[in-house]
Every structure is written in C-alpha cells, then in structure tokens.
TrEMBL record:
InterPro entries: HerA-like (IPR008571), HerA_central (IPR002789), P-loop_NTPase (IPR027417). Gene3D superfamilies: P-loop containing nucleotide triphosphate hydrolases (3.40.50.300). Residues 346-531 form the Helicase HerA central domain. This is AAA-like domain protein. It comes from Flavonifractor plautii (Fusobacterium plautii).
Length: 852
C-alpha cells in the first residue's frame, strides 16, 4: 500500500463512503466478495502490517496485501480483482516482486502471539452419575462495528519495536462442515435436555434416569447459535497473529487489537513456543486447537464475517489523525533540497528549490515565526546552492542576523543618517546591453508605483526623463554600452521644472503641479535620500544585483522612497535577467527577492487606474503581479511576506505556488488563505492556535497542506550597529561595496566643500576689504555704514565657516569609520581643517586690528 486515503478530500464525496463508517462498509464488502473468490480458487489473503523501528519517521509502517495460492495460474486474475475490489477506490496497492519484498520484510522476530476463540470444557450437571459427560464449547465474541485498529497502530508507534500484525484468511462454506461436526452432539444434547424431570437416556447401551442438565442446555444453546451464525454469515478460516522481538511486545500488540475490535465476549491470546517464519505464516491455515475434540478442531479459528471484520482493517484515519504511514496528502520529501522543518512524525521536510521559481507567500501574525522562516530560507539558499538573494526589509532590522553566519559574500545596506552601511543607487543607470527606451518605460512605471502622480505629471515625467538622457548625449534608440554618463535626480528635477514652465496651464494648476513635484521628486534630493538617489553612479551595477546575497534596511527612508527603491531594484533585477536569460544555468534558480511587510507596497486590489483617483499602491501591485508572471521563465523567485492575507491582492495569492502559513487568528484571513491552499475546515480552525514556528505548508503537487514545525534559525538575535560593523569588517565584498559608496559620498562632500569654500572666500575677501576701508577712514567721523557692512560680513563669514566645519566633520567621520580609504581623502581632510583654521585665524586677527 502506497498511502492511506485522506477522507476530507472532495473526490471521496462522489463515492458516498467518505467517512469512517463508509470505509468500514467497504472492508466488509471486500471480505464478502473475497470469501467466495478465495474459496473457489483455493487462495489465502494476508493483511500484513509491519513496524520497522529503525526506519526514518514516516517510513516505519508498511501495509501489504499478500495473496497465496496453490495455483500460479490464477494469480494474474486475482491481481486484477484486487484492482477493482471495493477497497480499490480508496487504497492504492502496487505489485511488489516477492524476492525484493522478502528482503524488505526482514522477518526475524523472536516471539509470536496468536488470537483464537476461547475453548471451554464443562462437566455435566448430572454429578450423581458415575460417568459424567464433558461438553466442549468455543465462545465467540461480539465485534465493535466501528473499530479501526487505530489503538493498535498507536501502540506500534509507542512501543518503538520491530513489530508485525498479520491477518490471514480464506473463505469457506462452513455450513456443511459444522453440520457434520455438530449433528450428533446436537442430537444427543436435545435428547438429554428434553423437557421433564425423569427421562430414559440411552448411552453406551445403558439406560439411566436423569434429571435436568443445565450445562447440557447451555451447550446446546451455544451449538445452535453457532450453527445459525454459520448459516447466515460468510465464514473464514482465519489466523490472527502478532510478532515482536519480545514476548511482551507481541502480547501488548495483540491485546491492543482485541481491546478495540471486541465489544463483548472474550478471546484467547497465547504465545507458541515456536515463532513462525514468513513462509510458515503464509502457508496453509493453522487451527491452533488445544482442548476441543478432533471433530471440532476448526472451531477456534473459524470466524464469521462480523467476527473477522474489525481485525481486517487498512488504515482509516480521520481528519487530524496521524500514524507513521503517509496519507495521500502527505508532503513530498525531497532529499538534497532546501531544509524547512519537521512534520508531525518528526521527519525532516525539505523543499524543492524549483518551487521558488513559481514564488512563495509567507504569512502569520506578529510573533508567529515568519521572520525565522524567511531567515532559514535565505541562509539555506546560499548554504546549499549558492543562490544569491535580495532582502528588502522595511522595519525591525532582523535580517542582519545573517551577518552572524558564514555567508562571506553578504552585503548589508542600511541607508540612514550617520549609518556606516551606506547605499547609493542612480535610477538612471541601467544594464549594459539594454535599450534606453525600455528602461525609460520601466522608470515611468516605478515612479507611478511609488508616488501618486495625477495627470499630466506622468507625461511630463516621461518627457523629462528622456530629455535628461539626451542632455548626456543619449538617443532614445541607443543600446547601453557603458560608455556614456548617466543623468542624476537633480537634473531630472530641474528638467521637470523646465517642462512645467513650457506648459499652458494657468497659475493655480501650475502651482499645484509644482507642489506635487516638490513633494514627490524633490523629496528624493534632500538629506539622506539625496545621498541614496542623487548620485552619479550606483554602489552596485545593475548586472551585479543578482550575484550577491544582499540585505537592504529601508526603515529610515520613509514609505514612498522605500517603495520607490523596492520597485527600482525589482526593475533593475528584471532588466538584468532579461539581458542575460541563460546565465547561471548550472543553478536551478538564479536569484530570489524577499519582500518583507509587503502591505507597505502591495494593496488589497490590483488596479491600473490613472488620473486623480490613481493609487500608487495599486499601481505597484500591478507591477509586482506582472513581475510574478514574467520572471518565472528567467529563473527568478519572489518571496512575499506579510501578516495578513487579506491585505494582499488576490492575484498575489494566486500567483505564488508555495504558501507557508503561520498562526492566523482572524477568521476571514484564515478562510482566504485556506481557499488558496485547499485547507480543510479542521486545519483552518487549528491554524488559530499554532505555536510560534508551527506552520501549514502547501505547494504544487499536494492535495492538501500539511503541518510542520519550522527549524529554528540559530542566530536569530540581530546585532546592533556597532556589532554589525565589526561582523562585516571581515567580508571583502561588503567592504568593497562600502568603500565605493563612501568614496562617492566623500567626493560629494568634497564638491560641496569646494563650492562652500568659494562662497567663504568671497565673503572673506569682502570682509577684509571692508575692514581695510574702515581702517582707512577711521578718522573721518561717522562710519556707521562701514561698521554695519563689517558686521554683516562677519555673520556671513561665521555662517560659511560653520558650514565648512560641518562638511569637514562629516568627511572626517567617514574616514575614521573606514581607515582603508586611499590617502587622498586623508590629505583632503587635513588640508580642509588647516584652511578652516587659517581663515578663522586671519578673520579673528583682522577684526582685532579694528578699533571700534
């Protein structure tokens, strides 16, 4: 048997028998059918359940249906009959070669327990007679009709021993046999129990006077009941046996079966001195009689269908029940794939890395274990396959925990004020080999997805983007060769202002549009955002975003800019993959994007609405949905994580094959995610009580999701900024990226310093000139105007010096954080400090020379 049926599946509703009672009825129908077949073909059926304690979890139980016959000629026909039997709709049996099976069985048990009906001997109540008679009775039992042997299977799991349970039977037309065996005893008992206190009974040619014999009456009643049962129900010669390495194990297993299968009455369990081999088990029927006369030797192991039925059970599991044998909705265990966790049987579950090409969705309330799951996926992608990834983390800064692992190529960006993990990305830089026109179209979509732009701003933006490229010598039809410079965000903003001035809109409309530009585009030029986006070149070229494991912390950027960066990076990665679709063919997957707290970017609805009602989140959602559909062919995976499924557009759930669902308490969220992963009502109800780390997993090829506990990520505690800086010092790729960005930042500071120095020198020259004029005309009387000019010059000088000092302090802070910078930067710092000191000295000296 390959698996046990999951009765919660809709396909069984069509059959009608989609509950435990219905399946028990199927077992009874099987026995009734094969009662006649085995009788006609001289065949025996054996249901064998084995438990191999040393096997892997999930593989310890085996269920086999064996057919033995005195004639090999009938076996092919019997095989076909099994395939169309009443059990075939639920239980899938596959043929097994006997030679290989014998090896798999590994039959080497030391002890055996046998079940049979209880044999009893009673003496006649006529104790006054010299030759009192013995009466022999075999007691049957009343079966528990709803027995599933579930308790016995649980005992197998609990004992953790090598065990076997075997039911062997063959049908027989027992009426004639029983009549022949009981005809004379029944006749004798009827005469003996005839009504009356004084009778003449002839035994052994001797006439004796007898009174009422209660033992005889009860024996006669048992015989007649047995005869009636045999006449009304199909009968079987059946051997029910258990095997173990210990006598206790065999007896406990049989006791568990008896305790569940028998509702009333008793059965006898005994342990033979000799433990049978598998060949002996499969041989002809054994009577195991120990008390009754030879004529009744068949009785202890002759069972009616009702008596045999509860002992003949393929596994019938209700919703939520589990044994060490797979259901048809089991997880597909894939060796050598991504480790994920352990199932209910503590068996390790792995994921096929190819699943991520069809994308994943991870959800659960805060504290349910989403981040732990995502950290494990990130780490194992790199550890097992060297597959690069990009984590876009809008809050918490938890993924920096990966810096504590052995991912040497890891790069961490955390753009914020004073951060030592800077990032620079020029949106106008695009992959070499790509057409400019295509990148401009993609840029338009990124801006519309990140910022609310009402018409005609999108059209103005498109013209301005093209114009700034043209200013750098580009033609819209050009293919990027890497030889030309790229525009910057400052240039775009200035060009937008120019384009706006060219429009014919009235003052109010133009003012509103200018305000919109100020809020949307100009915000990317100021303070920390300017350091990130308003740069001539990016820290990492577009082609290299898919080559390294990278974490970007977006918390300090703000919602709009963070979404802009997210969409921008997704665009660059998609562009790079399309330019080189055959890259890294030795890997099953090229790259994976992890989008955390996706509700910041993705809306509950997907819409391409434009105009005043346009929603940037809806546009971003459309962009992500389109990307989910396109990048699969490029072997790019996208993992989207969020707390609530209802905050995601339905297209997101539909276009993600792998779903990992942690605890969800809201009913509407459970119903939504459940409908996308074929979860049953029981699974959805249990989902609200999951502990941290417990999850319901679904992916392509499964009929139903399954529960597992995700492996705990060992380095879960994230380091602080200082600890992270120390951890990343030893990673050469990270250091190279940081040095490149820092040098770009230093060059920008130096350019600002030079511009401010020019202003300071102009103020200085004017101050010196005004001071000289004041000294020259000191005795001319009223010099109030000259004095006022000097005071203004002094204030301007102080302001310029303060700006220069702040720039020098920023410059110095970067140099101190990255001591491996080229000497030129240190020299510039020294010169700047000396220049500030000199100017301060000469200004102070000059002012002291003036006698007010």
């Amino acid at each position: 048997m390959e698996y046990t049926p999951d009765l919660s599946l809709c396909k069984y509703e069509v059959l009608g028998d989609n509950d435990a009672n219905g399946l028990i009825g199927r077992h009874n129908a099987f026995l009734r059918q094969w009662n006649r077949i085995t009788s006609l073909t001289k065949t025996r059926i054996h249901l064998l359940i084995q438990y191999h304690a040393n096997n892997q979890p999930g593989e310890r139980m085996k269920f086999l249906l064996l057919i033995t016959s005195s004639s090999d000629a009938v076996l092919p026909a019997l095989h076909q009959l099994v395939r169309v039997s009443p059990l075939a709709d639920y239980f899938h049996f596959v043929p097994v070669d006997w030679n290989s099976l014998e090896h798999q069985l590994a039959w080497s048990y030391c002890s055996e327990a046998v079940l049979k009906k209880t044999e009893r001997r009673r003496n006649s109540d006529m104790t006054s007679e010299a030759n009192s008679q013995n009466f022999f009775v075999v007691s049957g039992w009343k079966s528990a009709e709803d027995a599933r042997l579930r308790d016995m299977l649980r005992v197998m799991d609990a004992l953790q021993q090598n065990l076997a349970y075997v039911v062997s039977f063959e049908g027989t037309d027992a009426v004639d046999t029983v009549l022949r065996a009981l005809d004379r005893p029944i006749s004798y008992l009827r005469k003996r129990t005839s009504y009356g206190f004084s009778q003449k009974v002839s035994l052994d040619m001797t006439t004796k006077v007898s009174f009422r014999d209660i033992a005889a009456e009860e024996t006669l009643d048992e015989y007649e009941k047995f005869l009636t049962c045999v006449a009304e129900s199909p009968c079987f010669y059946a051997n029910i046996r258990t095997f173990s390495d210990t006598k206790t194990g065999a007896e406990l297993l049989m006791s568990a079966a008896v305790g569940e299968a028998i509702e009333e009455g008793n059965a006898e369990i005994f342990c033979p001195l000799h433990c049978e081999t598998i060949d002996e088990v499969l041989a002809s029927h054994q009577y195991y009689s120990s008390l009754v006369p030879e004529s009744l030797v068949f009785w202890p192991t002759l069972l009616t269908l009702e008596e045999l039925s509860p002992f003949f059970r393929c596994p019938i599991l209700l919703e939520g029940e589990q044994i060490d044998f797979p259901k048809e909705t089991k997880a597909k265990y894939m060796s050598g794939s991504l480790p994920l966790g352990r199932d209910l049987l503590n068996y390790p579950v792995t994921l096929d890395v190819d699943l991520l090409k069809k994308h994943a969705f991870v959800c659960g309330v805060p504290g349910a274990g989403k981040t732990n799951t995502m950290l494990g996926l990130c780490y194992n992608l790199w550890e097992k396959y060297r597959i690069p990834f990009l984590v876009l983390e809008p809050a918490k800064k938890e993924y920096r925990a990966l810096a504590q692992t052995d991912i040497d190529s890891l790069i961490v960006f955390s753009p914020s004020s004073g951060s030592r993990f800077p990032l620079a990305i020029n949106p106008f830089q695009f992959p070499i080999g790509m057409a400019l026109a295509e990148h401009i179209q993609n840029l338009d979509e990124v801006f519309e997805g990140a910022f609310p732009l009402s018409p005609p701003l999108p059209a103005l933006l498109d013209r301005a983007i093209e114009a700034v490229y043209v200013d750098h010598g580009w033609d819209v039809e050009d293919i990027n060769t890497g030889e030309r410079d790229y525009p910057t965000m400052t240039e775009l903003y200035k060009k937008l202002e120019e384009e706006l001035e060219k429009t014919d809109y009235d003052g109010e409309v133009r003012g509103n549009m200018k305000s919109a530009l100020e809020m949307r585009i100009s915000s990317l030029l100021r303070r920390d955002l300017g350091n990130v986006f308003d740069v001539p070149v990016s820290t990492i070229t577009p082609e290299n975003w898919t080559k390294y494991p990278i974490i970007i912390e977006l918390e300090s950027l703000g919602k709009g800019p963070a979404n802009f960066l997210t969409l921008m990076l997704c665009t660059l990665i998609r562009e790079a993959l399309r330019i080189d679709p055959k890259g890294d063919m030795d890997k099953p997957l090229r790259h994976v994007i992890f989008i955390e707290e996706a509700h910041n970017l993705i809306a509950p609805v997907c819409s391409d609405t434009t105009g005043e009602d346009a929603n940037p989140k809806s546009a971003a959602t459309s962009y992500i949905v389109k990307m989910l559909a396109e990048v699969r062919a490029l072997r790019e995976g996208i993992v989207i994580a969020d707390q609530l499924p209802t905050s995601m557009a339905p297209e997101i759930l539909k276009n993600t094959t792998l779903k990992i669902t942690h605890r969800i308490t809201s009913e509407d969220d459970r119903n939504l995610i459940g409908s996308s992963m074929s979860a049953s009502n029981v699974q959805l109800e249990e989902l609200s009580t999951y502990l941290p780390g417990e999850t319901l997993v679904y992916y392509e090829g499964l009929l139903k999701p399954f529960k597992l506990r995700v492996d705990m990520f060992e380095q879960k505690d994230a380091p602080d900024n200082d600890q992270l800086f120390e951890l990343m010092k030893s990673r050469p790729i990270h250091q190279k990226a940081m040095l490149f960005t820092v040098q770009s930042r230093l060059v920008k500071i130096q350019m600002q310093w030079i511009e401010e120095w020019k202003i300071a020198m102009a103020v200085y020259d004017k101050l010196i000139s005004d001071c000289n004029q004041f000294q020259k005309h000191a005795g001319d009387g009223n010099l109030k105007g000259e004095l006022t000019e000097i005071m203004k010059d002094q204030l301007g000088m102080n302001s310029s010096l303060n700006v220069l000092k702040r720039l020098a302090a920023k410059h110095k802070a970067w140099i101190q954080s990255f001591p491996n910078l080229p000497r030129d930067y240190v020299d510039f710092q020294g010169k700047a400090e000396k220049d500030i000191e000199a100017v301060t000295y000469y200004v102070t000296k000059k002012l002291r020379e003036i006698k007010f």
